[in-house]
Known about the structure:
This protein is an alpha/beta fold. The chain is built from 14 helices and 17 strands. It binds S-adenosylmethionine.
Amino acid sequence: MKVNIITAFPEAFDSFLSVSMVKRAIDKGVLDVKIYDLRDYSTDKHRTIDDYSYGGGEGMVIKLPVVVSALRDIPERGKIILLSPRGKKLNYDVVKELSNYDVLTLICGHYEGVDERVKLFFEMDELSIGDYVLTGGELPAMVLIDSVVRFLPGVLGRGDAPEKDSFSWGLLEYPHYTRPREFEGVSVPDVLLSGNHEMIGEWRLKEAISVTVRQRPDLLYRVSPLSFRKRGIHLLLVHYPVLDRNGNVVSTAIANLDIHDIARSCKTFGVKLFWIVTPLESQRELVSKIVAHWTTGYGAEYNPMRKDALGVVRVVRSLEEAVRKISSLEKCDVVSVSTTAKVKERAVSFSYMRQKLFVDYEKAFAIIVGTGWGLDESVIDSTDYVLEPIRGVGEYNHLSVRSAAAIILDRLLGIRRD
Length: 418
Ligand SMILES: C[S@@+](CC[C@H](N)C(=O)[O-])C[C@H]1O[C@@H](n2cnc3c(N)ncnc32)[C@H](O)[C@@H]1O
């Protein structure tokens, strides 16, 4: 990879380029760095590169002709990057993508930055290394080069791989220890000395989850909790005991649309099984008939995608039966989570619950949604957790159970990308 750097302070790079992995990359011929001194492109005898900011203010701005001349002087510019606190944030994905380029050209700003019109002369990306302001783009350029170099072939030592580092698999990395085994009474965790690779793997996964939950819970939205799960997440649609508009406990009727839409959401978000709970035999038969039509009958041929979705549907008499069956299928206790549109004192937030799905990856979860006017209090009181209500902009939050289920699953299991 060839990296061109445009800077007003070339000497800032001297030690950076002569040590550690960056030096190794240069020595191995996988990295070639060329520095362009901005002052060489100034046209006055004082080698001035900056001027006052139009509109007033104390700060100086790097002049457009100086940067444009420097850029024009570079024979092969490749991808141009302006280091700037206003840029898109540099992260693992961006670094990995940049490592695929043959040539990068980095522009280091200074003072208030570079005349904005430079972007009209050359296509470029703006990148920031964090939400703070440094005096110049030299350190950000070094950060970028150092992180990209780790992806270049032959740079990291044997056994090291950027794919094993923090961020690469969605979580921060587990802790490392080395000799001595014990220092002033403090020992290395026993498991790491056990030689049991399965146990070590488990320990490292637990530590990685725990440090990510503690330090960077935001990262848990970039990866699915299902990636590390040993047991499934199940969704239960309850038709009894639920409330009617007058607050009476009733049994509601099955809605065909609920079966289809919720099964599709379950399939989309990786829910293992979708349990439809109704004590009425005729209603259970109806569900079985609908499911059979789409999974084994003409519907399966007509719409194979629907076959896939409805394949996750199971029908049971009661909540207890569903939980019992999940427990025997998963061979473990089941953590139950109820949902309600009402505000409950013991309710937990969606982000807390998402963290739980990571931390308790060895447990099965049952997320319970109610039909009618919502789950009866007896159900809510009996569950391990109650989720906070989904809120919109005002008081009104009467969502259909289909919409609520989709939103809940997205918040708990969906992935966000910046
Ligand atoms: C003092 S800063 C300019 C700050 C600018 N006036 C602003 O508020 O956005 C000078 C130069 O340092 C570099 N720089 C400062 N902070 C940075 C960051 N967080 N990421 C990348 N570059 C940064 C940029 O090249 C920038 O042009």
